[in-house]
Every structure is written in C-alpha cells, then in structure tokens.
Automatic annotation (TrEMBL), chain A:
Matches recorded under InterPro entries: Gliding_Motility_GTPase, Gpn, P-loop_NTPase
Classification via Gene3D superfamilies: P-loop containing nucleotide triphosphate hydrolases (3.40.50.300)
Family of the protein in this entry: Belongs to the GPN-loop GTPase family.
Protein name as annotated: ATP/GTP-binding protein
Lineage, uppermost ranks: Bacteria, Bacillati, Actinomycetota, Actinomycetes, Kitasatosporales
Length: 198, 128
C-alpha cells in the first residue's frame, strides 16, 4: 500500500486505533460516544435488504424488507499522530455477524450495562469473553443513580474477577473518560504481564 | 495486505445480492472492492497535485477527493458523504488505483502489545 508519497502535501495521516462500545439495545452507547468524542457522533449506515421480497410492493412496508444497520462513532485525538475512534456496535443481537469484523483490530471494548436491564448486555459480554477481547463493564445508572454496589452487579452478570466493573453516567464526559482509562489500565497491566513473561 | 479486513466486510457481513440497489449504480454495478485495503479507520488522503495524465474523475469521485484533501478516516468519509461504507470503499479502490489518493492502514494492535502506545493512549484520555 502506498502509505507515503512525495506528491502528497497534506499533513501526514495519523495512526488510528479503535475501541468498541458494546451492549444491548438502548443502554446508552451513543450517549457515551457523544460524551467523550470531540465531534458530534457520526453515523454510517448499511442497508441490508431481506432477499426474495416483491420489489414492486412499496406500500409503506419498507421497514419490513430493509434493515438499516447503523454504526455510531466518535473521535478522540490523542496527539498529532494518533487518533482513537469509538464505535458503537449495533445493539440488536441479530447483527452479531458485524461484531466479528468490527472487533478485528480493536484495542478492546467497553460493554455498557443498563442497571435496570442487565440481561440485554449478556450477549455482548459473552461475545468478548469467548473471543478473549479485553473489555470492561460500565454500568450506566439511570439518571446517574446507582442503587446496586459493584459486587452485586458482578455477581448478577457472573463476571470473572479479571473483568473490571465500573459505575458510570454515560451523559458525563469525565465519567466516560474514566471508563476508557480503566480499560487502558487493564490493557497496560496485561501488556506488562506479557512483557514479564518474555 | 490481502489479510487486512475490508471495510465492506466490516459492515456488510457478506451477501451483496441482498442489498439496496441504488448506491451501486455509482460503482458501475460492482459490489466488491478490488482491493481489501480499506477498513473503517484506514485514513485516506488525496494526492495533490493529481498524477500527470490522470483522467477526469466522476462527480462522486470528485466529492470524495474534496473531502480528503486532509487525511480522513473511511468511516468519516462515509458519514460526511452519506453513503454506505461499502460504496465508499469501492470508489476509494478506483481512486487508489488511479493514484489519486494514498491510504494508511490502522495501527496494528494484534500480536505483542505495545506498552508505549497503550501508555500514550491512556495519558491522552486522562487529559480529556
């Protein structure tokens, strides 16, 4: 790939990284992305059409044959030469096939859990666990309230000890930043263990 | 580079026959990129000035070139131009082949973790 070219006068392109923001439908993924992103969350869309439907029949049933898979994402410029992207994964479980490809090359993931509906995020936890992709669980309090202690949530989600659980408010920039820092701390600790073994 | 996942596969999951047809009129009916160099966070930059003897680009290609005068990620291009990523990638392949853009793959993160990189990201986040 022509990564450099003498004809290019634009600034050198930065290195890019990505972190996934996962969790069930409606848990606050896009809210979290928007809270820490330096740009308003952007959306890319893919239209998937159910096969075999009558194309001539357009009477208000477009939703039935077309499913729009949307990815919301934001950007955090770490430095002149390093940019981090946050991608909100599609909440609907039937789009699990997208997660595989999205997860490729990701630093790690945040699984957002709605304290009132923890079950909707089980699939995401399971996904990252099975693939050994590092993740943290961030419990998004409804209106920022946290009625349950971390250990109760850890038990309810049957999370192993090595998975950090943090309480957060997806609407608050500092709170979301702290979630990402916990993920990075986990990645750093893991990298140090790897280095120590080498 | 063939091992790199394409942005098209990142979002389509496979079956191009099951898609909406209209955006692919922009790509001459092709539904697969000819190169798999473009992920969602691959950055692309227009080559300026364009290579000598370059053919005049199609209007949609021109729109892309205007949006990547400075380096921009594929996902951002798709969002700004309001086109599916898979369509953008096909046109980026055309532009790459014509020498009109350069593409930079994302930072490799698989394999041995890069402690220095992780620390840099952590420090950057902590400054937010």
């Amino acid at each position: 790939m022509p990564a450099s070219d003498t004809a290019v006068r634009a600034p050198a392109p930065p290195d890019t990284l990505k972190i996934l923001i996962a969790g069930g439908f409606g848990v606050g993924k896009t809210t979290l992305v928007g809270s820490v992103s330096e740009i308003a969350p952007l959306r890319t869309e893919e239209s998937l059409t159910a096969a075999g439907l009558d194309v001539d029949d357009l009477d208000g049933i477009e939703e039935k044959r077309t499913t729009t898979v949307a990815l919301d994402f934001g950007r955090i410029t770490i430095s002149d030469d390093l940019v981090l992207y946050l991608f909100g994964t599609p909440g609907q479980q039937r789009f699990w096939f997208m997660w595989n490809d999205l997860a490729l090359g990701a630093l790690g993931a945040v699984v957002l859990v709605d304290v009132r509906r923890p079950k909707v995020s089980f699939a995401a936890i399971d996904f990252f666990e099975r693939r050994r992709i590092p993740f943290v669980v961030a419990v998004n309090g409804f209106h920022g309230e946290h009625p349950y202690p971390v250990e109760d949530i850890r038990d309810a989600l049957a999370l192993p000890e090595h998975v950090p659980v943090v309480l957060c408010d997806a609407r608050e920039r500092e709170s979301c930043r702290d979630v990402l820092v916990v993920l990075l701390d986990q990645l750093i600790a893991s990298a140090e263990r790897t280095e120590a073994r080498v | 580079m063939s091992s790199r996942p394409s942005a098209a596969s990142e979002v389509s999951g496979g079956d191009p026959a099951g898609r909406l047809v209209r955006p692919f009129t922009l790509t001459g009916g092709r539904t697969r990129p000819s190169r798999a160099d473009f992920t969602l966070i691959t950055t692309v930059t227009a080559v300026d000035p364009p290579p000598a003897g370059a053919a005049r680009p199609q209007p949609e290609h021109l729109r892309i070139l205007r949006h990547c005068a400075r380096p921009v990620a594929v996902a951002e291009l798709a969002a700004h131009l309001d086109l599916p990523v898979s369509v953008i990638v096909i046109m980026l392949c055309d532009l790459l082949e014509a020498g009109r853009i350069t593409a930079r793959p994302p930072r490799e993160v698989s394999g041995v973790p890069d402690l220095e990189l992780l620390q840099k990201v952590r420090d950057g986040l902590a400054r937010l």
